[in-house]
Amino acid sequence: TGAISSLQRQMEIQESELRRMRTENELLHKQLREREVQLQAVSDKFCSLTEEQRQEEIVVMMEEENRNLHQVVTEQESQLAEQSKLISELQGTINQLRAEVVTTRLHLLEQKQVQKEIQSQADALQHKALQTRVALEHITTKFERYRNKIIQATFSMEGSQDPPGELTDNEVLEAMQKIINERTEFQQMLKNKGSK
């Protein structure tokens, strides 16, 4: 947005300069027309003189006026050429700035689209993380329930001693394995004696 504002300010400055050049151009044209009016006035003035005076005055005045007009026209043509060149350059700069504004706006739109997609992905990941956390809590609760049942089954048997404190998972597994081994041995012993 800052880049667009800067480009628009530059464009406004260039357009203001372009308007100034066009105003000066119009002023030069106006001065040229005024010179033509002056020349016509001189011409009308000499029409009232005698033929001989008229011819002499006309020759002198026309030569002088021609020199002046030629100089003015040369200067004005030079100024017009410079101003036309400046106008062309300013127009090119304005066109370039407009293109940069369009490019910057497109870039901003692309960035907004990417940001929107990233936000959507972040929301999806957050939702998935929440689901995973709920599932993990459920599994943990289930695991604790099974673990307590195993501990209860393991240490509630006749002849078993209560655990001295908090049991680790390995200690619970060892106790279970011990009971399984003992039951397996007892079943084998009964089978050897022929009992069901």
Descriptive report:
With 196 residues, the chain is mainly alpha-helical. It has helices at 2-46, 51-155, 169-192. α1 runs antiparallel to α2 and α2 (51-155) packs parallel to α3 (169-192). It is rod-shaped, with a radius of gyration of 52 Å. The protein starts with a helix and ends with a helix. The model has no long low-confidence stretch (mean pLDDT 83).
Task: Summarize this structure as a short list of keywords or feature phrases.
single chain, 196 residues, mainly alpha, 2 domains, 3 helices, 0% strand, CCD27 protein, CC-FHA_domain, coiled coil
Write the layout of secondary structure elements.
Blueprint: H1 2-46, H2 51-155, H3 169-192
Helix pairs in contact: 1-2, 2-3
Keywords: Coiled coil
Coiled coil: 4-31
Organism: Panurus biarmicus (Bearded tit)
Counting DSSP H or I runs of 4 or more residues, the number of helices is 3
Q: Which residues sit in consecutive blocks of at least 5 with pLDDT less than 50?
A: none
Number of structural units classed as domains: 2
Oligomeric state of the chains in view? single chain
The topology string of helices and strands comes to HHH
* Structural class by SSE content: mainly alpha
Give the total of beta strands. 0
Rounded to the nearest angstrom, the distance between the terminal CA atoms is 89 Å
Instruction: Tell me what portion of residues adopts beta-strand conformation.
Output: under 5%
Radius of gyration: 52 Å
**Shape category:** rod-shaped
Helix content: over 70%
Mean pLDDT: 83
Q: Describe the biggest sheet?
A: none
